[in-house]
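Example 3.2
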Amino acid sequence: MTVGGLDSAPGERIFFFDIDNCLYSPELCVHLLIKERIYEFGRGIGMDAATVVETCTSYYKDYGLTVRGLINHHGVDVAAFNDKVDGSLPLESVIKPDSALREMILSIKTRRWAFTNAGFEHASRVLKCLQVDDLFEGITYCDYAEPDFPCKPERRAYEKAMKESGAKDVRLCYFADDSASNVEAATEFGWTSVLVSKQPPVASKAADLHIKTIHDLPLVLPQLFT
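Structure, written as tokens:
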């Protein structure tokens, strides 16, 4: 698996898969474990314990990722953040191999690319836990050490994914994500998007298609599996 620099042949379809809360169920509550560690990290760098939750939440809303707010406002050490937040997560004891997911991904008749707002180490660990890490050509991730790094739902993030994967035509790009804002941005960008959520989309424009679990992908895009 690579992190970019490939070239796609004309007319070749590609499917971009989000990772967290998309390839595995949000009911595993990994996102809650992440939040707990972010708040603990914030208190550790001197943020007000009484307002750390509110401040981190505002950073997430304003910057797309809490870590971007922490970098911009507190000059946090990226390596320390990775070590104390993502690196401390007990992923291997929470996320288990998913043979049905592996079979579904293997059966899709497109190129396969992972596209996440997480850092590379975290994304790689999740894919290995699910035992699907060998099924993707590459991964577009957030490099926290890169100044002003792009993340979904920013247009720059989708442009980066296309560049790194070598995709040329937005009309041949497919995307699945659990975030309504991310799939809405993908739809506006020209991709065919699928919202993966047990909750119905708030706005009809949020996604082209909607499924409750990633395992149902063949039900809404059968043409990619035949």
